[in-house]
Specification:
Number of strands of chain B: 9
CATH architecture of the largest domain in chain A: 2-Layer Sandwich
Number of helices of chain B: 4
Strand order of the largest sheet of chain A: 12-11-10-13-14
Shape of chain A: globular
Oligomer: heterodimer
Largest sheet of chain A: 5 strands, parallel
Strand content of chain B: 25-35%
Strand content of chain A: 5-15%
Helix content of chain B: 10-25%
Structural class of chain B: alpha/beta
Largest interface: A-B, 42 and 46 residues
Structural class of chain A: alpha/beta
CATH architecture of chain B: 3-Layer(bba) Sandwich
Number of domains of chain A: 3
């Protein structure tokens, strides 16, 4: 890779050992992907939580802090494996909480804002068109790339931390205009009717286009999606397809026309979402039991509007005693939702609102073993996808069916 | 019978030269989605390698799956002795490469001929990232 004098100095250790290690790491990744040089980034978003990084990852972060590392661009961190306020109610292991505490301190020493959120784009650092980013959490990356037209690859925890320390990333993948062109045309003939239908749509497309380097462009949508709709579409596409960018003609900024989205070269594949396909996406998760253990609204964390809608649906009602209803959000949104009374309404109905975490991060294996949880009903296709690897039976259902299940203690289908 | 040495060529990979036994499938891979990371056993029903262990094996997959967790998880698995010895993909994504670099595990992609078709589970293979090639040293006994 071609290095600037500043990058040469970083690599020579003149900015300290933490920066030297960070740049060397980035160089190895960049050369693998044939990057020609580095590109400055305006923010980093770091996925760091004990469930995936373990004590080895924690030791790595602590060492970078001990070496005097300091992020040089705004750097935020993603959802964590415990809710620092409610972990006892969930029966999470004290040891896990202690490790997360240590991680928080190390991240803060590095200058990372420990906002513990996967919806940084909704509540902390809204991405803007054309800016280069070093973000982790795939849901955040695909939102920034697709909805805002910002430019980021999937930067995993160590890579986003490196970018925070050096202020740059190797220029390859979604930083290059050529990689942003649509390669798969998706004709949608089944219109999403509620929020979870966008998650279903992402699930359907992601199952068929499961390759980081492919870019779907959607046509045929007659409904203008909300920010929440796009968030769930993106999260599901990123989860099922490992995709980092989508376009919707007439909606997203790099797709004012189909020709603009494809950059003039015809897509290599065409998919059709036939009428009835969204219902089929739900039914691809069979109702293995009528009596699920958990109804979870999470992945990504809920926005203020999503919490408002949940509060409205639960107002004056009771969650069935055989079911546990969990919702996750971030600290900022929780604060406002508390002021607006949403948290009280949800908790009076018997639900639990968790902060700073996301269900699949919350040591789900251990929770399953401790409480005997087996079945999770959720309106997030992303959560349904991930949680299967933790030994749960996921049942993805429309938002209204999830609510009905929570209230009646029984899954209607 | 003298076997012809099979060599797969690609671009330089990351990590150290590694020799080991291959575990091959045409499925995609994520440490979070597919594994019980406490043991290194594939725990996702429906995965081609469900119930098998990747510990100490050189895994061959189609491409990456899911999100960012694998970028951290490989280091943690290596420290706990439940990591794969090396990873080969038809095409990798950034997360797998970041995870491999952090953990010091060899990773290669873009090999010809197709590693998923060419390498068989049980083959003894050598991954040479710096040279950009993978050698099949000894074929698994034909079942």
């Amino acid at each position: 890779m071609r290095l600037t004098p500043e990058e040469e100095a970083m690599l020579a250790g003149r900015y300290g050992e933490a920066v030297r290690r960070a740049l060397a790491f980035q160089l190895a990744v960049g050369e693998f992907f044939g990057a020609e040089d580095f590109v400055p980034v305006t923010s980093a978003h770091l996925m760091a939580e004990i469930e995936s990084m373990g004590e080895a990852g924690l030791a790595f972060v602590e060492e970078m802090a001990d070496l005097g590392g300091q992020v040089r661009i705004p750097t935020t961190c993603n959802s964590r494996s415990v809710d620092p306020y409610r972990w006892t109610a969930l029966g999470q292991d004290e040891r896990q909480v202690a490790l997360e505490d240590r991680l928080t301190r190390a991240l803060q020493r590095l200058g990372v804002l420990t906002v513990d959120t996967c919806i940084n784009y909704q509540s902390v650092v809204p991405p803007r068109f054309g800016e280069h980013l070093a973000w982790g959490d795939t849901g955040a990356v695909i939102f920034a790339n697709s909805v805002a037209g910002a430019r980021s690859n999937f930067e995993g925890g160590p890579a986003a931390l490196a970018a925070g320390l050096t202020g740059r990333v190797p220029r390859y993948g979604y930083h290059l205009p050529a990689q942003r062109r649509a390669t798969v045309l998706v004709e949608v003939h089944d219109q999403p009717r509620q929020r979870s239908d966008w998650s279903a749509l992402g699930c359907l497309i992601g199952r068929q286009v499961n390759d980081y380097w492919q870019v779907p462009v959607l046509t045929g949508l007659s409904i203008t999606p909300t920010v929440e709709d796009l968030k769930h579409l993106g999260a599901a596409l990123a989860s099922y397809g490992s995709l980092a960018l989508f376009h919707i003609v007439g909606v997203t900024p790099e797709a004012r026309t189909l020709a603009e989205a494809t950059g003039g070269s015809p897509p290599t594949r065409r998919l059709v979402v036939e009428p009835g396909a969204l219902a089929e996406a739900y039914r691809s998760f069979p109702a293995t039991t009528e009596r699920p253990d958990l109804v979870v609204f999470s992945a990504p964390q809920l926005s203020l509007f999503e919490l408002r809608d949940l509060a409205r649906a639960l107002a004056g009602r009771r969650v069935h005693p055989a079911v546990r209803l969990l919702a996750t959000t971030n600290y900022q949104t929780y604060c406002v939702a508390e002021r607006l009374g949403y948290v009280r309404v949800i908790e009076e109905a018997g639900g639990t609102v968790l902060q700073g975490s996301c269900f699949y991060l919350m040591t789900p294996n251990e929770l399953r073993e401790r409480f005997g949880y087996q079945t999770v009903v959720t309106d997030s296709a992303k959560l349904a996808n991930i949680i299967a690897g933790y030994g749960y039976t996921p049942i993805f259902r429309p938002t209204d069916v999830c609510l009905q299940t929570a209230l009646e203690g029984r899954l209607p289908w | 019978m003298v076997e012809e040495r099979i060599i797969l060529h690609g671009h330089p990979g990351v990590g150290p030269e590694t020799e080991g036994e291959a575990l091959v499938c045409a499925d995609n891979f994520s440490a979070r989605y597919d594994l019980d990371r406490r043991t290194g056993v594939f725990s996702r029903p429906g995965h081609a390698l469900y119930g098998q262990s990747l510990v100490g094996r050189i895994c061959v997959f189609n491409t990456a799956k899911g999100g960012v967790a694998t970028a951290w998880a490989l280091l943690d698995m290596k420290r706990r002795g439940v990591a794969p010895a090396a990873l080969i993909f038809r095409r990798a994504n950034p997360i797998m490469v970041q995870g491999a670099v952090l953990a010091g595990i060899a990773l290669m992609d873009g090999l010809e001929p197709d590693p998923v078709q060419t390498i068989r589970t049980g083959d003894r293979i050598r991954v040479r990232p710096r040279a950009g090639l993978v050698e099949v040293i000894r074929r698994a006994p034909t079942p």
